[in-house]
Each structure stands twice: as structure tokens, then as C-alpha cells.
From TrEMBL:
GO molecular function annotation: acyltransferase activity, transferring groups other than amino-acyl groups
Name of protein: Protein N-acetyltransferase, RimJ/RimL family
UniProt-listed InterPro entries: Acyl_CoA_acyltransferase, GNAT_dom, N-acetyltransferase
Pfam family of the protein (one): Acetyltransf_3
Keyword annotations of the record: Transferase
Domain N-acetyltransferase: 12-168
Length: 168
């Protein structure tokens, strides 16, 4: 269900970031297992997390969507992030990440399916994602949901492949 830029799945709510979420993002990305495939692979500083929340809220105000907090509905806990990034040097793309303790539980599939449905409701086509080619879990998740490899070394970056899914 999508309502006012809130996406709900059976077990998750993806909602706009609140400023208080910055501390949770810092904690999630302090885990090297999580941060290794995000940005420069380093932990996120408090200032960077606050900027991420600010930029995501600005995208929401300007475009009606952005990146938000992934909340496990049963616990109410912030367990990750998901949504749409708008990089200046490339296509709009889905992004997502979860606390390592929540991996291999099907949450990634719920997130990708929900983001694809959201993109369809907003006529975003194609839906793009960039992935480090060594992130086999994310590559498998995207291909499972109909994404195809479009370009290796996207943007001249050896650690970034472009995947896309077009409307069927």
C-alpha cells in the first residue's frame, strides 16, 4: 500500500525520514558488513547522516518521493533505509539497505517489490539500481525481481554496475 509517500508491506513500513533517524543510520552503517557496499564503504558520520535525512526530505518535498526509513512493523524498530536516490550524475535509482541481523529473512524482496510497485504508480520507467558487482546478494535480489544488467563499470566506476527493470 502506498499512501502519502508511505509504503507498507506485510512486515515493513517505509516512511519518510525523521531527523531523529540520523542516529539510527549511523548505528546501522557502523557495521562494516553493511557499510562495505554503501558509498565509499566507510561508516557514516553524524553530519553525513543528518545531511542524508535533510536531502531525502527535500526530495520528498520536491518530487513526492525520496529515500526513507525502513521500519519493522512488529517491533517499530528502524532496521534500514529504502527508496529513490537522485544522483546528479546518473539516472534516478532505487537504493536499500538493512541491518545485518535482518538479512536472509525476505525483507529485501519485500522492499524491492514495494519500490517497483511504487515506481509503477509514479510512472518511473525504467527503474534503475547501481550495485557493486561483488555484492552477490543484491545482484541476486535485483535479478529475481526482473532487473537486467545494462552496463558494467557504470559511470566509469569499476565497483558499480547498472541494472534496470522496464515496465512489463
Amino acid at each position: 500500500m502506498i499512501q502519502n509517500s508511505v509504503v507498507e508491506t506485510a512486515r515493513l513500513t517505509i516512511r519518510p525520514f525523521e531527523f531523529a533517524d540520523a542516529a539510527g543510520l549511523v548505528a546501522i552503517l557502523a557495521d562494516p558488513q553493511v557499510s562495505r557496499f554503501v558509498g565509499d564503504g566507510q561508516a557514516l558520520s553524524g553530519d553525513d547522516a543528518a545531511l542524508w535525512v535533510t536531502n531525502s526530505r527535500a526530495n520528498l518535498a520536491r518530487y513526492g518521493y525520496g529515500t526513507g526509513a525502513v521500519i519493522e512493523r512488529s517491533s517499530g524498530q528502524l532496521i534500514g533505509w529504502a527508496g529513490f536516490a537522485r544522483p546528479a550524475d546518473g539516472p534516478e535509482q532505487i537504493i536499500y539497505g538493512l541491518m545485518a541481523a535482518h538479512w536472509r529473512r525476505g525483507f529485501g524482496s519485500e522492499i524491492v517489490r514495494a519500490l517497483v510497485d511504487f515506481a509503477t504508480s509514479r510512472a518511473i520507467d525504467p527503474v534503475s539500481a547501481t550495485v557493486d558487482p561483488s555484492n552477490s546478494a543484491s545482484v541476486a535480489l535485483l535479478t529475481k525481481h526482473g532487473f537486467r544488467l545494462i552496463e558494467r563499470g557504470f559511470g566509469g566506476e569499476a565497483d558499480s554496475d547498472l541494472y534496470q527493470r522496464t515496465r512489463e
